[in-house]
Write a structure and sequence with these properties.
The complex is a heterodimer of chains A (422) and B (264). Chain A is of the alpha/beta class. Chain A has 17 helices and 8 strands. Chain A has a 4-stranded parallel beta sheet, with helices on both faces. In chain A, strands 6-5-7-8 form a 4-stranded parallel beta sheet, with helices on both faces. In chain B, strand 2 (12-18) and strand 3 (24-30) form a beta hairpin. In chain B, 41% of the residues lie in helices and 19% in strands. The two termini of chain B are 14 Å apart. In chain B, helix 2 (79-90) packs across helix 8, helix 4 packs across helix 6 and helix 6 packs across helix 7. Classes of the chains: A alpha/beta (422), B alpha/beta (264).
Chain lengths: 422, 264
């Protein structure tokens, strides 16, 4: 039997790392103010999670792309399970341990590492035990099954939010019904009532957040592009952990201003911009530092990520908060990859190539993700038609044993030479 | 000024020299533990270049797995860039280059200027590479040349896995030792089919456009090229010394740099 004991020090290690990053940034004369805010926000998020039990707060573990706005409105402490797991993995170097713990549960090594590691993290007690588990099928089927297992491991009740593939009126109504059921479930479990006024405020804030995401994307169209090459990961984290939160607005407004200043001064993210890249999916987290360095070395900068930062059209309406929560789930960039791949996904690639003046694309093909890797050829063909070369990097988003830095360097150098030679 | 290209591979180091009049000379030498000394010795012995100092009327571009070890090279280029240039130099009509080396396999789409349009590499397993064939020949107790020759006599070949070199080895051993043993010519054909299957998977990922050139040390193996042609459905181009394509490409890059410096 696997021992499920909460180990505060794991969360403590994230908090400590965030504070160190903050101190380092404050000491750097060229540090971005937004980066200082970012690490402060992370530190606060995990401090709240760490103290939740002592403060008698109700904790809900939830998987990626789950509407955490509802949790904030109910004064429930959210624990974004994927992000928390991988921050533990990154900051404590325990990736192999978490994956092994997942394997020990009987999960095959072919199962995608984020999910295997997530189960392992709970089994090994690396994550605090939640009061409830919440999960959905947005955006992958692994998540749909993963939640059941996490609920079992944690011996806690759970709720599966069934998100329909399509976006018709009937399906929107169905999703709103699902959200309503989930709220009732949470009210029963936590004994806390939904604060609808608070939810309306959060929706107004989220609407502003989406506007700011769009404005930041607009600024990244500038040549040279002002946002550092792996910066999009910060934007993802903001959306994952702080939907509709005032501190997210503060971060995004600060970042937008910094980028606007750089655009006005004609300053780019890399000292000499040579290659403007489109990125598909998430690069190996353990190589982020290396990727930043090689980007500087070769003047390569990721200017657009169609399925991560390119938000769909539409606005949220605080007067219709639940409908807006549903609507947002159809506006997130990742949703274009959800269910049967349709024209929206392909059109967004074409649109981004033109608008962001893309020279080449990099597809971080996470070997464990059949869902995304199925699109490699399709995307490559579309880009080839537009005379944009695409490099496919077989990798694993968290497992460092799959791809080495040296191997990654070799392939990226070949790709940059290809772009240079054209 | 001479344009010099050196390809430091895992087994052999290839040196190519393009003289001012376009004459190509080359040599192939084992890489050994010290590719720099091997390269210098090869040059001194075969090409009459006793001193390898930049500025000594030489422009040197290095490529390959050990290119970073050649401290005296003026520029390092990716193997794929050099393969594309080399294949274009050797066969200007080639639009697809298949390179099968000791440890890697690359398929490259080359444009009319010798630049890469697209490429794909296989480097996760020895299956489909030269060292795999060496190992198989050893199991068959014959030389690579003998294995190549007998494969022409096979009417068919057993299915041998192309996904894992270790599993493939077990399969070949079982064919050798079964009672009665599978005829050796058929095993040889099966081995080549396994390598070709791996190569074709790569080809399908980026598409094949005529003409197709096959380079790298494995292209010396006539038996394998024969089965590859059967699979592709048309004749491929194989240079007399296919293993030097990347070194030639590096020399072409060096020549282009010399011309740029001269303002041509």
């Amino acid at each position: 039997m696997i021992d499920i004991t909460e180990k505060k020090e794991r969360i403590e290690s994230i908090i400590r790392a965030c504070r160190i990053m903050q101190r380092m940034n404050k000491a750097r004369p060229d540090a971005r103010e937004s980066e200082i805010i970012y690490y402060d926000m992370l530190s606060n998020y995990f401090t709240r999670l760490q103290n939740a039990r002592d403060e008698g707060k109700f904790v809900a573990g939830h998987t990626v792309f789950f509407p955490a706005e509802i949790l904030y409105a109910m004064d429930i402490v959210p624990m974004h399970t994927e992000t928390t797991t991988w921050m533990i993995s990154l900051f404590t170097g325990e990736c192999a341990d978490l994956l092994s713990a997942g394997t020990a549960l009987g999960l095959a090594s072919e199962i995608c590492t984020p999910h295997r590691g997530l189960a392992g993290a709970f089994a090994a007690g690396a994550l605090p035990r939640p009061d409830v588990m919440l999960w959905s099928n947005l955006i992958c089927d692994n998540t749909a099954k993963s939640g059941e297992l996490l609920m079992e491991i944690n011996h806690c009740p759970g709720f599966f939010l069934d998100h329909p593939f399509q976006h018709s009126e009937d399906e929107r109504k169905y999703l709103i019904g699902e959200l309503d059921s989930m709220i009732r479930f949470l009210e029963e479990q936590s004994g806390q009532k939904m604060d609808w006024e608070r939810l309306a405020e959060i929706i107004a804030c989220m609407d502003r957040q989406i506007e700011l995401f769009r404005e930041i994307c607009e600024l990244r169209k500038a040549v040279p592009s002002p946002f550092h090459t792996q910066g999009f990961l910060e934007l993802l984290t903001i959306d994952y952990l702080f939907p509709g939160q005032p501190e997210a607005i503060h971060y995004l407004e600060t970042l937008r201003q910094e980028l606007a200043d750089k655009v006005e001064r004609g300053v780019g993210a890399v000292s000499s911009e040579r290659f403007r890249l489109m990125s598909f999916f998430i690069p190996p987290m353990y190589l982020i530092g290396f990727l930043e360095r090689i980007s500087q070395e070769y003047g390569a900068v990721s200017v657009t990520e169609p399925f991560f930062t390119y938000w769909g059209e539409g606005r949220l309406d605080p007067n219709r908060p639940l409908e807006s929560v549903a609507e947002k789930s159809y506006m997130i960039p990742e949703v274009r990859m959800y269910g049967p791949l349709d024209d929206r996904a392909l059109k967004s690639i074409v649109g981004c190539v033109e608008q962001y003046k893309v020279d080449g694309a990099i597809y971080y093909a996470d070997v464990g993700c059949r869902h995304t890797c199925a699109t490699v050829k399709l995307f490559k063909d579309i880009l080839n038609d537009m005379d944009v070369p695409m490099l496919t990097l077989d990798c694993d988003v968290v497992d460092p044993t799959f791809t080495s830095e040296e191997e990654m360097r070799k392939k990226l150098e070949q790709f940059f030479e290809l772009l240079e030679d054209r | 000024m001479k344009a010099l290209g050196i390809d430091v591979g895992s087994l052999t180091t290839k040196v190519a020299v393009l003289d001012g009049d376009g004459t190509l000379r080359f040599t192939v030498t084992p890489s050994g533990d010290d590719p720099e000394s091997s390269a210098k010795a090869a040059l001194a012995k075969h090409l009459g270049q006793p001193e390898l100092n930049p500025g000594n009327n030489l422009y040197l571009v290095s490529t390959g797995i050990g290119s970073r070890l050649l401290r005296f090279s003026q520029q390092q280029k990716a193997i794929t860039t050099c393969l594309a240039r080399g294949v274009h130099f050797l066969f200007p009509s080639a639009r697809t280059a298949i390179d099968i080396g000791a440890e890697t396999c690359n398929v490259i789409r080359v444009n009319e200027r010798g630049r890469i349009n697209d490429w794909v590499s296989h480097d996760k397993c020895a299956a489909g590479t030269g060292v795999f064939l060496q190992k198989m020949a050893k199991i068959m107790q014959m030389t690579l040349e003998e294995m190549s020759e007998i494969s022409f006599h096979a009417n068919s070949g057993p299915e041998i896995t192309s996904t894992c070199a270790v599993f493939a080895e077990s399969e070949v051993i079982s064919h050798v030792h079964r009672d009665p043993p599978t005829p050796k010519e058929e095993i040889a054909a099966g081995i080549y089919s396994s390598v070709v299957s791996r190569v074709m998977t790569l080809c399908k990922r980026i598409g094949i456009e005529k003409d197709v050139a096959v380079v790298g040390g494995v292209a010396l193996n006539r038996g394998l090229v024969n089965i590859l042609e059967r699979e592709i459905g048309f004749k491929v181009l194989v240079p007399d010394s296919p293993q030097i394509a990347a070194a030639v490409g590096a020399a072409v890059v060096a020549r282009d740099n010399i011309e740029k410096m001269a303002g041509k």
